[in-house]
C-alpha cells in the first residue's frame, strides 16, 4: 500500500473514524483503524462491533492495499504534523508516515484480523434528508432508557410509513415522539430500533444538506452519504405499544411561556430532593404555582401567569424530566395537557399559524403522598 | 433471776458474720486486697495464688504502707483510714471504704500483714489466726504492704464447701484482676497461679494500651475511642469497629466512676448503638467508662457484687446508645487496611476532681500533656474525613476511590448506596413515605401465592416505599408506580427480589427491628446501584456526597463496611518509607 494524502484530509478522516473506536477493548484490533487504499481514494474504518464508521478521503494512491494501524496514535501524530503532503506506505505489518522531514513507523495488524463490517446492501436503499434525520434524532434520543433490563427501551424506535417517518424514545417515565411528513422515496413500511450510539454518529458525521441513502440488510442498518458510511446493529424485539399510552382524553390545557416555565422549574429544582427531584405544580385559572418542600433542606415557591381556564389541579413531577422535555420544545410557547394527578401529562409545541410540528413529549407524574 | 438474753457479740463473731457478706471466695479476697492496695496509691501490685487461692493468696504492693498503729487498727472492723467525716462518706470514691474487708478476711483465714511506711525505719509484721492476733514484730521490707492469706475458710467449713474447682476459682480471680487492671491502667499488675504467670501488664499510659497488654491478639487494634458527654453523663472508652465484630466470645467491661459493674441493660444499650452496622448476632468488644455525679449512681448496693443502681437508668442507657452511635459515625470506625493501627489515643480528659482521691491513681485516661513526647500523635484523633472535594475515580466498576488528606478511601458503590437508600427510606417513613414515579408501562408481575398474600398485607407500607401495587386477579399484580433511586434502576427485578426476601425471610430481613426497617433494608439492598455499574464523575460525586450525609457512612445495612481506609502511614510502612513518615 502506498498513497500520498494532504495532512488535512488524513486528519479529518482519522477524526471521523476514531470517535467510533472503543477506548478500552479486550480485542486489540478494535483500537486500530482499517486503511484500504483503492483506486478512487482511501477508505478508513473503525468499529466497536455494534456501530461501524467508514469514510473515504481523497488521496493519490500509487499502490493499492490494506492494513490496520493504531487509531489514537495516528490521530495524535497527524495533529502535530506540518501542513504538507503525507506519504503513507506499508512494510509488512508496519505503517510508515513521511511528512517533510518527519518520519514514523507504527506497528499495525493485518487487515484480515479486522472484523468484517456489516455488509449492508444499498441497492434497495431509500433516501432521507440529513436535516430530517437530525431533527428526529435531536428531539427524541435524549429520552432513551439507561436501564439495561429492557434493551428495547435502550434504543430509539424509528417508524417508516408511507409519506411519514417518526422517532420515539422512552424510559417508561417520560417519552418523546416526533414525526416528519417525509420525502422518504422508496422507503419500506418498517420499524427499526436503533441504538442511540449509532444515531450519535449519524448526527456527527452527516450534514443537514446531505441526502442520505439508508438500507437494511439482515439485522443491520446502513447510512451512506457521498463519502461516509455508518452501520449499526439493530436492537431486536417489539417496541411497546407507545401509541396506546399517549392520552387522548386530556381535558385540561395550559399554554405556558417556555422560557418562563423553564427558569421557574430550574429555580425550584435547586431546593428539590436530590433523589426524586419532586416539584408540585398547582394549576388554577390564569396561573400555575410551583412548590417544593424538601424535608431537611427547605422549601420554595414560585408562580407564573399562564393561559389556563380549567379546574384547579395539583400534580407532581420530577423536575429533571420537565426540564429535559422543555429544553427540546422548539417553540416559545408550549401546550401542556393533562387530566388527573396520576395520569400522564403531555407537552407539545405551539407553532405559528399555518405551521405544524408533529412533536409530543409525555411525562409521567410523581405520586403525591401528602 | 433474769438471764441476760441479749449479748453483745464478740468482735470475732461479728467479723465472721460480716465475712459472709464480703468474702465469698478467693476472687472476693483478691478484689478487696487489690482495692486496698490501689487506695494506698500502689503503682505495682503482685498477686500470687496457690491452689486457686484456697491454700494461699498473696497480694503485695508498693503503696504508702502503714505504720504499726494503723496496721493494727486496720484489723479492727469499721476502723477505716479512708473516711474521716460523714460528709466525705456521701461522695466517697475510694474502693474499700466500708472498712470491713481486712478484718473479715482475717476472721476466716491465717493472715499475715507485712507493711512499712516510707518514713518509718522498720516495717511491721502482724500475724492473725482466725481473727485473733498472734504476734506483732518488726519486719525488714520495702515501702508498701503485703497481705498473705493462707488456708481461707479453715474455720468456716460450710463456706469452704461451696468453693469450686481450682480452675474455676483461678478463673474468677483472673477476671477480677483483669477488671481492676482495666480500671487502673497506670498500675502494673501481675497475677501468678501456682508459679504460672496469668497476667503481666506494665504501667500503661491509658486504657487503650492496657487493653493491648491484656489481650495481645488482634482485637486491640480494632478498637476505636469513644468520648461523649450528655445530660451530666460522660461516656469514655473503646468500642470495636463494626466490620470486625464477630459472634461468639467478646469482652464487655463497664465502669462507673472508676468502679467496675455489670449491667446487661447497659451492654444492650451499647449494642443498640451498633444497629444496622453489624451483622445479626455479632458481639462487638466494648470498654465503657461512665462518669457522673456521685449522687446519680449508687455503687454500694452490695459491696461484693458488681451491681450499681442509677438514680435514673433510662437516660443513662440513652446516653450510652448515642455515645456508641456517635462514635460509629466517625471516620475511625470504617474498615481499614492498616495492619498496625496506631494505638487508639483515648479521649483526652482528666477525671473530674473527685472528693479528694489521689490524682495519679484515678487518672484513667491519658491527658494531652502525658502524650506530649509523641509529637503530633497527641490530642485529636487523626481525621481522615475528605477535605474539600476529593478527586474520585472508579476501580473495577465497583469501588470509588478517593484521595484524602491522610490516605485513600475505598468506597464500595453498592454498599454505599445501600446506606444512602436505607436512611432515606427510614426518614421518608417518618414523614409518610417516599414518592413513586408513575409508569407509562405498568409492570405486570406474577407472584407465588405466599408472595401475593404478603404484598396484600404490606400493601400500604410498600406504597409508602414508592411501590404502588394493584391486584390484578389470580396471583398477578400490577405495579403502577415505583421509586426512582438512580438511572440504572431495574424496578421489576428490585420489586421481585424484595417480595421474595420479605416472603421467605433473609438474614437481612430477620435482623431488622421492625417492619419499617425490614422494608427499608431489603429495598436498599435490592435497589442500590449494583457493582459492575460504570459511574461517571458526576454520579460518583453525588453518591459520595450522599454517603457522607448519612448518619453512618462507614457501614452498610448488612453490617459490612462501606469504606475501607488505606492510610498514608500504612502505605509508608508497606513501602518501607517509615523514615519519612510523619506519624504512627
Describe the protein in words.
The complex is a heterodimer of chains A (370) and B (584). Chain A is built from 7 helices and 27 strands. Chain A has 370 residues and is α+β, with helices and mostly antiparallel strands. Chain A folds into 3 domains: 2-113, DNA Polymerase III, subunit A, domain 2 (DNA Polymerase III, Chain A, domain 2); 122-243, DNA Polymerase III, subunit A, domain 2 (DNA Polymerase III, Chain A, domain 2); 246-363, DNA Polymerase III, Chain A, domain 2. In chain A, the strands form 4 sheets. Chain A has a 9-stranded antiparallel sheet with strand order 14-11-12-13-26-25-24-18-22. In chain A, strands 6-2-3-4-17-16-15-10 form an 8-stranded antiparallel sheet. In chain A, strands 5-1-7-8-9 form a 5-stranded antiparallel sheet. In chain A, helix 1 packs antiparallel against helix 2 (71-80), helix 3 crosses helix 4 (196-205) and helix 6 packs antiparallel against helix 7 (319-328). The longest helix of chain A has 14 residues, at 258-271. In chain A, 40% of the residues are buried. Among the domains of chain B are: 11-201, Histidine kinase-like ATPase, C-terminal domain (Heat Shock Protein 90, 2-Layer Sandwich); 214-336, Ribosomal Protein S5, domain 2. Helix content of chain B is 32%, strand content 23%. Chain B has 18 helices and 23 strands. In chain B, strand 18 and strand 19 form a beta hairpin. At the A-B interface, strand 27 of A face strand 20 of B. Strand 27 (366-367) of chain A pairs antiparallel with strand 20 of chain B, so a sheet runs across the interface.
